[in-house]
Amino acid sequence: MKIAVAGKGGAGKTTICATAARLLARSGHRVVAIDGDTNPNLHTAIGIDPAAALPTLPTSLASQRFDGPRLTASIDEVLQRHAHLAPDGVHLVRMGMPQHADEGCMCSAHAVVSAFLADLDADSEAVTLLDLEASPEHLSRGTARHCDVLLLVAEPYYRSLEAVRLQASLAAETPISRVAVVANKCRQGTDVDAITEFCERHELDLIGLLPWSEAVLGADSATRPLIDFAPQDDMVSALTALVTSLVEEPSAEMVTASRRGTFAERPSRADSSTETGV
Ligand SMILES: Nc1ncnc2c1ncn2[C@@H]1O[C@H](COP(=O)(O)OP(=O)(O)OP(=O)(O)O)[C@@H](O)[C@H]1O
Ligand SMILES: [Mg+2]
After folding, report:
1. What are phi and psi of 46, to 5 degrees?
2. Distance 130 CA to ligand 2 centre (A)
3. Which of 15, 130, 131, 221, when mutated, tests ligand 1's pocket best, judged by the most ligand atoms within 8 Å of its CB?
4. b/e for 84-111, b at 16 or more Cβ within 10 A?
5. What ranges do the domains of the chain cover?
6. Strand order in the sheet with 84-85
7. pLDDT tens digits, the chain, 278 residues: what are they?
8. Across the strands, what pairs with 92?
9. Which residues pair with 178 in a beta bridge?
10. Do the Cβ atoms of 271 and 48 come closer than 8 Å?
11. Could you tell me if 63 and 73 are in contact, meaning their C-beta atoms sit under 8 angstroms apart?
């Protein structure tokens, strides 16, 4: 399964991608994590030394075909030469990033990621996670078009949800078969109600409610992956439930642990204030 993670800036895409990658590897999946952000930081969140020299995928790896970019080498060769080993056996590959000011657009870097995803086998034991940048450019460039699932991460405020709505409408024009919303940084029942109402109103498939977590901030400050810094944290439990239902029971009704537990005492819709402004 190939899962792309997108959403507005700072919504939690990298945190979710990194933690999900480690969790899935621990549960026995072969995991490839792709840093598809030209301002990359997935390696730090996943547990690779931030100071390590980590070459990116060379643009010469993609050749243009009538049906879009494809790799000029086999997936195995690309992984052998260009992947970096992260904890729990996750393989990390990184999209190219600007090396100099004024060097022009990043189309060819996006094309390599698109080619990599096109050539990757749809093996049920393997999971690929693509951490995207905040701009919707990955949709106009077709970077994630070979993914099976697009997870759109939203924070409980209007502009973040609007960004997700825009990306969902663009994604509907791609071959991606499932587009779903994951709400992150939910602090209270009113956040959950506001997001639920927004998603219902815009016919968005809300599959996860992840809590606000001080441990995520603590992990960032300590430059450590969340899963190592606070393995028992509610955010990790909620993500475990989310990725398990997404990958191992993809057809089951997806109800996250956070929905069952963390927000069990949320107020009724009638009690909700407009405090989140959604
Ligand atoms: N559930 C959470 N609770 C509290 N803070 C969180 C949570 N998830 C993410 N954060 C914090 O939000 C900030 C942004 O997180 P992250 O880098 O994962 O977002 P992003 O969407 O990848 O950002 P960008 O658009 O810059 O790539 C970080 O400081 C992170 O610690
Ligand atoms: Mg990020």
Report:
1. -90, -20
2. 10
3. 15
4. bebebebbbbbbbeeeeeeeeebebbbb
5. 2-271
6. 84-85, 91-94, 30-36, 126-132, 2-7, 149-154, 178-186, 206-211
7. 999 999 999 999 999 999 999 999 999 999 999 999 988 999 999 999 999 989 899 989 988 887 788 888 999 999 999 999 999 999 999 988 888 888 778 888 888 999 999 988 756 579 999 999 998 888 888 889 899 999 999 999 999 999 999 999 999 999 999 999 999 999 988 999 999 999 999 999 999 999 999 999 999 999 999 999 999 999 999 999 999 999 987 654 433 333 333 433 333 333 333 334 34
8. 33, 84
9. 149
10. no
11. no
234 CA distance to ligand 2 centroid (A)?
21
- Residue found under tokens 């992947």: 83
How many angstroms separate the CA atoms of 276 and 278, rounded?
5
Q: Is 157 exposed, middle or buried (0-12, 13-18, 19+ CB in 10 A)?
A: middle
State the burial class of residue 38 (Cβ atoms within 10 Å of its Cβ: 0-12, 13-18, 19+): middle
Rounded to the nearest angstrom, the distance between the alpha carbon of 65 and the centre of ligand 1 is 36
Give the CATH fold of the 2-271 domain.
Rossmann fold (3.40.50)
| Closest atom of ligand 1 to CA, residue 216 | 31
pTM for the full predicted model: 0.89
